[in-house]
Amino acid sequence: MNFSWMAWTPPTALFFVGIVIALVGMGMVARWIPKNEPRVGILGIATQRGDRLFLSLLGSAFVHLAFIALAPASLPLWFASLASLVYAAAVFLFV
């Protein structure tokens, strides 16, 4: 299989490794704690763990896009990654 069409830089690889770790982690949580009752948070809709994971991944993509568009070029991209982790924690706690 030839992946030369994609720019496999270390940040790109870390991004995909992070998504795989999140999915494997959610699978292990589902295995160890099978009770997954819907919860109504600040959005007013019932969400489960998978819904909150999806919202955190989607929001993290937007955080990174906004960082690339609005932040000065001198700031490293890992600031956006830290902001995304804070955002994901907030989603899992409050949504």
Your description of this structure?
- This protein is mainly alpha-helical and 95 residues long.
- The chain has one domain (10-94).
- It has three helices and two strands, in the order H-E-E-H-H.
- The protein has a two-stranded antiparallel ribbon with strand order 1-2.
- The protein starts with 9 loop residues before the first helix and ends with a helix.
- The relative contact order is 0.11.
Mean pLDDT: 89
Low-confidence region ranges = none
Largest beta sheet: strand ordering: 1-2
Tally of DSSP helical segments:
3
Main sheet, how many strands, which sense, barrel?
Answer: 2 strands, antiparallel
Provide the succession of SSEs: HEEHH
What is the rounded Rg? 16 Å
| Chain oligomer state | single chain
Indicate the topology:
Elements lengths: L9 H23 L6 E2 L5 E2 L1 H22 L7 H17 L1
Antiparallel strand pairs: 1-2
Helix pairs in contact: 2-3
Outline of this structure?
The chain contains three helices and two strands, in the order αββαα.
Kindly list the characteristics that best describe this protein.
95 residues, flat, 3 helices, two-stranded antiparallel ribbon, mainly alpha, single chain, 65% helix
